[in-house]
Amino acid sequence: MKLKALFPLLMLVMISACRAGEAQTPEDTGEMPYGEIDFAFFTPRALPAVVTKALIIDNEKVVSTYRT
């Protein structure tokens, strides 16, 4: 009698617990897919520039924005 009452609950627990964890992309977690990145910009002396924003587009079309 107890087994029949617990069977639906047991099946529900088994079905809900057997979910495989999906791989999370860096965009989902907010982490960067790369290590530490440094930027070096070279300009002519006659045309100095101040860089305040850099955009990187990787091969998967993910845009990463950096403010300096």
UniProtKB/TrEMBL annotation:
Keywords: Signal. Residues 1-20 form the signal peptide. PROSITE patterns: PROKAR_LIPOPROTEIN. This is Lipoprotein.
